[in-house]
Amino acid sequence: MYNEIDLKQININASPPAEEPQRQYYFMAKCCQYTKQFFTGHGRFPTAHVQNYGCQMNARDSEKLTGILEAVGYEIVDSEEADFVIYNTCTVRENANNKVWGRLGYLNTYKKKHPHMKIALCGCMMQEAEVLEKLKKSYRFVDLVFGTHNIYKFAELLHATFVQEGMVIDIWKDTDKIVEDLPVERKYKFKSGVNIMFGCNNFCSYCIVPYVRGRERSRKPQDILREIEQLAADGVVEIMLLGQNVNSYGKNLDVPVTFAQLLSDIEKIEGIERIRFMTSHPKDLSDELIAVMAKSSKICHHLHLPLQSGSSRILKEMNRHYDKEQYLALVERIRSAVPGIALTTDIIVGFPGETEEDFLETLDVVRRVGYESAFTFIYSKRTGTPAATKSDQVPENVVKERFDRLLKEVQQHATMRANALTGSVDEVLVEEVNEQDDTLVSGRLGNNFIVHFPGSRDLIGKIVKVKLNECKGFYFYGELAQ
Ligand code: SAH
Ligand code: SF4
Ligand code: F3S
Hints:
With 482 residues, the chain is α/β, with parallel strands linked by helices. It has 13 helices and 19 strands. The strands form five sheets. A six-stranded parallel sheet has the order 2-1-3-4-5-6, sandwiched between helices. It has a five-stranded mixed beta barrel with strand order 15-16-17-19-18. The chain starts with 21 loop residues before the first helix and ends with a strand. FE3-S4 cluster binds next to helix 2 and helix 6.
């Protein structure tokens, strides 16, 4: 385990070991020299800022970057005015890229006044050839660029920025490697994400993720269980299992395991009170999983089940491998096995060729399922995906109008679902002191709704019973129940 490693014991004058993670421990020890030198020169350790732009998987990667920066002697700060700034990027939609280009302009101005500052970029956007070209041409002030497949090499790459002139670039096309036992710094003490797999093999026709995250790779169950046991020993009560399609977990392992079997094993770990997971692809959601959820006392009664579109014709074009009827039948099976389960979803509006009739099918599913909440997205053309070459892109004004109608429908059902819980008593995991009113604390129900109630800081990380007095649409005001 990483926490048993003493970096001071590593001989940094020897040549670097070839095997992982020992090689990274060696470079971490080397980086420590630089932060110590900085301390001697400045009377303080260098500061570092890690900015995340992506999904929960990226957020977990950012915790790994933070863990390494802390281990080598950086002080982590919230501000971008730091000695080392790293952006962990996303490219799922065009606006994710635009945000990064915008912020880079600002960082450049800051760096001109603080020339010793280092700027690093990593994550999904870096896996795109055009992005790399643009960086090489017009963003020479960036010190380090790496992608999603070699993030485990961060210590080695960071070290390269100290000894190498110019922009350090290391982008891999793909990998089958998973490196365990590197340091990670959790954002919350009481909850944590846990990667169970990386990459995606589904190639939904609109989606860039399989191209930038590579092929699906599952971690070994014993590595996952060991990590969760360690987290539980460290005070974590809630875990979120992460993967682009958790329902296909374990299929490619030497000894295949199903996701449902993995969940049953995790359930046995003492100290873990709540288990969440995302994302579940409807095409691979098994009856075995539904049965495990139904009898579990720890798996939260919440399922994120991306619909993307309610039109069977569009679903086929999207390469989703289910149709409207199959999706609705699945919802039916889940709801009857796990009564009261909260369902949330992702929906894309304006996929190429989407007609008014197709869109009405989506509205129909939203009405029939009545989601607790939904992430709604305007289709964004991603170069390199099959959908990007389609000629029948939907005009912007039509998409916008459909998007507004969808949002209204979603909100109406979400409010109805939440309202139905008013007056009940349920368990809340307290997460933080309320930002607006410090006499309140805020937390989440198992079904993921947020609750604010009077309470003090020492409740953070505890699961308590709360009466849901007042529903505000997407959240509740409540009080501790005895
Ligand atoms: N693996 C997950 C989704 C990861 S991406 C799954 O299959 O559900 C998160 C969401 O972004 C997707 O569910 C989809 O709704 C949305 N998305 C992906 N590509 C998009 C695109 N090109 N335009 C708009 N939304 C997109
Ligand atoms: Fe993208 Fe589809 Fe893979 Fe999800 S399952 S990451 S939407 S390709
Ligand atoms: Fe974005 Fe990469 Fe996640 S593209 S959504 S950060 S997997």
